[in-house]
Amino acid sequence: MSPEPANGPGTGIPRHLAVIMDGNGRWAERRRRPRMIGHRAGARAVNVCIDFCLERGIQALTLFAFSSENWGRPEDEVGALMKLFMNALEREVEELDRRGVRVRFIGERTRFSEAIRQRMDEAEAVTAGNDRLHLSIAASYGGRWDIAQAARALAEDVAAGRLSPDAIDEHALHARTCLAELPPPDLFIRTGGDLRISNFLLWQLAYTELWFTEALWPELDTATLQSALDDYARRQRRFGLTGAQVAAPRTETSA
Ligand code: IPE
Ligand code: IPE
Ligand code: MG
Fold this sequence. Notes:
With about 260 residues, the protein is of the alpha/beta class. The protein is built from nine helices and six strands; from the N terminus they run βααβαβαβααββααα. Helix 4 (about 115-125) links the parallel strand 3 and strand 4. One 3-methylbut-3-enyl trihydrogen diphosphate (IPE) binds near residues 22, 66, 70 and 194. Keywords: Cell shape, Cell wall biogenesis/degradation, Magnesium, Metal-binding, Peptidoglycan synthesis, Transferase. One of its GO terms (molecular function) is magnesium ion binding.
């Protein structure tokens, strides 16, 4: 992404939006349909969200599609989700590429089948040159896994003599976490009404503004996303400073 952001803190538009897409199962259950119908309806909402980001000039979108813990769901649900994932990869990549979306996957990729891994690699390769929207799909992803794999990468560098233990600091660990090349999420949205992080981006969300809605993921519409943005624009992000410092940074810090 460009170093000089058009969006970001102070502009009212987040540069990076992170979303927990929750509530597919309940959406289907309320209609007395199998949970899988909810997941299918959820795939449509993904497009609503991507379109919204493209229209509003949000430069990065990270979607939580499947968590490390979701592998523990009933076998038939996991199997059906994998099929849906595979179909979506086959169906959507061309259009995403056409619209200038760069697609990447974060998570423990080795847990997926060879066929899915191949599709993921292809989607990343085909869209690698795009810069309009950086779309990261968190699949087989857990925030704890992310931090642990970054710690392992640090240990490997130390063991290989490439890094001194004294050089290990927040910056060094951050550089080895997923999404390190993007600005951290400015705004987090979770649908489905539950007020928790569920092992999403634990490291990256340190100073992210959190926003929750009762709306279930398949119900997602532009108006809901717009209310999240409106709310975000009204907030004062202080990053540990005082409100006065943030309101008049130069006067406060140079005094
Ligand atoms: C989110 O919807 C999608 C995945 C976790 C794959 P859920 O399937 O968790 O839906 P609810 O929370 O049971 O309604
Ligand atoms: C979080 O939803 C994971 C995804 C949306 C992919 P879950 O439905 O798995 O979260 P919990 O278990 O209710 O916290
Ligand atoms: Mg859920």
